[in-house]
Amino acid sequence: MFKRKLQALQYVASDSFNINDEKQVRSLILWLENQKIRYYKIQDRENLRKHDSPEWTSHYIKYLQDVECPFINGKLVEQLEWLLGYAVKLEYSDNVEKYKSITSQNIQKDKVVPKVVSSSTLDSLNFESDDFKNGVKSLAQILNITPHPNHFITLQAISKVICERLNPEALENPSFIIPEGKPFPFLETDAGFVSNDQVLTKAGKILKLLFIQDLRSLQTQINECIVSVQKVTANPKTDTKLGKVGF
After folding, report:
1. Is there a domain that residue 117 lies in?
2. Which of 32, 196, 198, 218 has the maximal Cβ count within 10 Å?
3. What is the pTM for the complete model shown?
4. Residue 94 and residue 19 share a domain
5. 23 and 100 fall within a common domain
6. Using the 8-state DSSP alphabet, how is residue 244 labeled?
7. What confidence tens digit (pLDDT) does each residue in 153-207 have?
8. How many structural domains does the chain have?
């Protein structure tokens, strides 16, 4: 997940970096400080060089505080993401003229687009054939999914069930995706309208719950977007040569 930023910073081990390897993580942090961030004086970086020291973690936390990382109490992945972004920002600030000449047009001119020949069997399928429709219907029955008149909608439902309930994490820990507690009594909720048709009222209550679920999903995406923007805009650096604050 850090590959593009590591490549932009010309980190030697960008292709093989593993965040789960403690030694690699500590080496990367020292490299960022030595080569890109350079917040400490050379003699003050000694504590970060002692990878095997039991006190390394405390020195690392102090380093995060000194560079004003907003994720001091966050996860390692958040801290590394911020440090890499901070290093990229400093790298650009130090070489503004160099990177100003690089445009998307220049990249496209130098980029050779290979001709892609698909070998996927999906490209040769007839999605409107009776065999395909019957296959989708059979798969829906296996997964206890009510078939829709439009087989593409049925296929979307199948895809959602497989992605959410049959992924490796869910299969390894079924309790993660199986709701606990009593089922929600949605039939006792207010549909939001008055109707003498019980079937219509029941459908309205179901659609209302699905709409609330979509709103929760949208709110989650908005929160993730806000966090991503905060990572980019945190601790802007003033460059008087550019006459502006930030990037």
Report:
1. no
2. 32
3. 0.42
4. yes
5. yes
6. E
7. 999 989 888 887 777 777 777 766 666 667 777 677 777 777 788 888 888 888 8
8. 3
